[in-house]
Amino acid sequence: MRERVLVETDNVKRVNKLVYRLLKRPKTEVPGLAVVYGPTGFGKTRWSEMTAFRNGWGYMRINRLQREKAFVQEIYRRLHWLIYGEDHIVRRTASKIEEMCIKLLQDNPEIVLFIDEINHKIHKREWDILEVIRDLTDRSFASIVMIGEQDTVDALNDYNPHFFGRCNFFFKFEKNTLEDVKRICNEVAEVPLDQQIIKEIYKETEGDLRKLVSYIPELENAITRKYE
Ligand SMILES: Nc1ncnc2c1ncn2[C@@H]1O[C@H](COP(=O)(O)OP(=O)(O)OP(=O)(O)O)[C@@H](O)[C@H]1O
Ligand SMILES: [Mg+2]
Question: Which of 59, 118, 182, 213 is the pocket-test mutation for ligand 1 (most atoms within 8 Å of CB)?
């Protein structure tokens, strides 16, 4: 089985257009905050990690226990790595580090930051990290894509309309289609899989690519054994 592949599913193609629009927006007028959301296993993390990696952008995942200072430290570390190609952990106050992040983002407006698992903070109504994101977008022309669960948009709208008002771009990962599943099986499996089995797995997994991919090694083994 091939690892760390990014198959161009329908969602991937469509969400790439959102990132394009985000980068092309009139930056002085429109805050660059996007929300990408959808059910578990639909491919949000795979897309954001790989897209960041391929374009030299930043990807980070919010840790459930992470607070404001650790968050700005991590953003700074990512940005420093992307811009200067070296690791740098800065030890200053949270507000000083935030200033440093703003400066890096102001000087490098082409960078997109993907912040995954944003729902941890929304559900616990811990706004410190969202306040940092708000400061970054208000004070630089940064483009930030927040990634979360299915109910992220509704939860943000209900609990923090002030922040929600700055989100201008939205994308929902929809259920992956049979065509998507076939494409994934073709590109991820190292041997051709039976089309009928692919259809059955598609029905059973209901768009959850994590479940789908977990079947592939066993199916590959079965096929390899058949021809041994
Ligand atoms: N476009 C893709 N190409 C190839 N494999 C994919 C793709 N999208 C998802 N997968 C496979 O499905 C798994 C689950 O996807 P991913 O972690 O991106 O889901 P998610 O939407 O972030 O789920 P969660 O909401 O639980 O975080 C990946 O680890 C990968 O194996
Ligand atoms: Mg994920």
Answer: 213
